[in-house]
Design brief:
Length: 234
């Protein structure tokens, strides 16, 4: 049996009323989608392709960041950015979800959170249109009363603003709202907003080991959440 790792006494007040889940790297492995859309764009601009290993390190800070880093990586002129963005968004729209896989344990984990009576939101730096389309394509849209993309607010994660706004939409206090993500970006935003935060160990985390990030707990699968919640409510 896989063990849940977390401090023996979690440093936040209970009970929890809601959870905010990140999308890419937490609910769905979208590396295949990102890589395919970027390579379609690069081919159209007659630039060299990128490998998935490189792309994984660019995910999690929104589309502008992903595109800028990719153009630098292939040695393209920064002036290509706007055109590249148009081509990339068109490509992504055309293949959203096709090479993406829901991580093992996600369906069980979400069911456990719902059974515990928590309100659920999905908060991602992905454009809202793509986030809603992906959740629908993967049969997860009905689980989230609230879905916000990276274009919903003035600033994206790691700024705390999107988490504060999501708590407002959920009608819960940040201290009673658990953030579940895969990266330093999620943890930094959660800490600054006053939300407890648990990170999954299988996501992208900007290409770095996730266990080095300051978080309240780590799980290898969302299916471990019931055990974690039990401890948190004890
Ligand atoms: O960077 C993105 O587009 C998505 O990132 P997130 O779902 O992990 O917030
Ligand atoms: Mg993520």
């Amino acid at each position: 049996m896989r063990r849940v790792t977390f401090p023996p006494r979690l440093p936040f007040p209970l009970p929890l009323r809601a959870a905010i889940l990140d999308l890419d790297g937490t609910l769905v492995d979208t590396l295949g989608d990102f890589t395919a859309a970027l390579n379609a764009m690069l081919a159209e601009l007659r630039l060299p392709p990128v490998g998935a290993g490189v792309v994984a390190g660019f995910i999690g800070k929104g589309t502008e960041h992903l595109l800028r880093e990719t153009l630098v990586h292939v040695g393209a002129a920064p002036s290509l950015f706007e055109h590249a963005m148009e081509v990339y968004l068109r490509a992504y729209r055309g293949l959203n979800g096709q090479a993406a896989i829901v991580y093992p344990g996600v369906v069980e984990g979400i069911a456990a959170l719902r059974a515990a009576g928590l309100r659920l939101a999905c908060l991602t730096n992905k454009p809202g249109e793509f986030a809603r389309g992906l959740l629908a394509a993967k049969g997860l849209a009905g689980d989230f009363g609230v879905v916000f993309g990276g274009d919903a607010f003035e600033r994206k994660k790691p700024d705390p603003l999107p988490l504060r706004k999501t708590c407002e939409a959920l009608g819960t206090e940040p201290a009673a709202t658990l953030m579940i993500g895969d990266s330093r970006n999620d943890a930094t935003a959660a800490r600054a907003a006053g939300c407890p935060v648990v990170l999954v160990t299988y996501g992208y985390n900007h290409g770095e080991p996730v266990r080095g990030v300051d978080a309240d707990g780590f799980v290898d699968s969302l299916a471990e959440l019931p055990e974690l919640l039990k401890r948190m409510r004890a």
